Amino acid sequence: MLRRKLVAGSLIVTALSSVTPVLAGTFSVPDELSLLFLNGEKVPSSFFRHTKSVEIDAGPTNIIVKYEDVISGEISDDHTVFESLPFALNFFAQADRDYQVVMTLPRNEEEARSFSNKPVVKLSDDGNNWVVLEIKYQKSEQEEKLKTLFSSEAKTSRKLKSATKLSASGQIDMPGENDTPEQLISVPQKSDITQPQPQPQPQPLHMLNYWWQQASPSQRLEFKKMTDLGR
After folding, report:
1. How many structural domains comprise the chain?
2. Is residue 163 part of a domain?
């Protein structure tokens, strides 16, 4: 009886050990990065202190981080805060290994602006080996709006092209059973054809009167001389 209990207890311990996650080690980031989520769970932090390292389990790992740094101005003493949208780091953690994110720190406002738009980092283990890392960026609200705008414009353009083709080909009516060949041929009637409207012609007398009113006394005198010579 005692032997059976020992065997059952051994099986339970073995089952529990197989289910319990294997601890890989720690995952750490530079001061310019903040840990937000680890495998879907929020990383504890406070307003004055951000968590810079967490313990991770072996296996597929998903970590959400964010870049934030203060860069001093090159001309004045002003300081500018640069921050990125949260981005994901995906990798496979090995057992009994520590991992640290490696990044090239921006040296000026231009580099900080470029880095915050698309952060580029690498991952190294405690043996100074580079780890295969997948980075997924979150699209900004402006990019989403532009995508929606371009999509709407493309749909409108397709509708306009379709309407243009339909207008050029004319409306298509399906022939009836009793329609004759003559009825199937649509011939425009004389009343349907728009006749060009005659354009009003300028009246010489009205034009002459207009320019006479606009002329100066000397110009009127010259005009009278011209008309007297033409007689």
Report:
1. 1
2. no
Tokens 């490696």 found at: 102
173-187 residue pLDDT tens: 444 555 554 444 444
Q: Bridge partners of 65?
A: 35, 87
> Given its phi and psi angles, is residue 133 left (phi above 0), alpha (psi -120 to 50 degrees) or beta?
beta
Note whether residue 76 is domain-resident: yes
Pairing mode, strands 59-72 and 79-83? antiparallel
* The residue to which tokens 């060949």 are assigned: 181
Q: Three-state SS for 19? A: helix
Query: How many Cβ atoms from other residues are within 10 Å of residue 52's Cβ?
Result: 17
**Structural domain for 91, as ranges:** 22-142
Work out the percent of the chain whose per-residue pLDDT is above 70: 57
Furthest C-alpha separation in the chain = 150
Distance between CA atoms of 90 and 164, rounded to whole angstroms? 49
Q: Is residue 112 included in any domain, yes or no?
A: yes
Token pair 């072996």 is at which residue? 58
The predicted pLDDT at position 9 comes to 53
CB of 35 closer than 8 Å to CB of 83: no
Is 40 a member of any domain?
yes
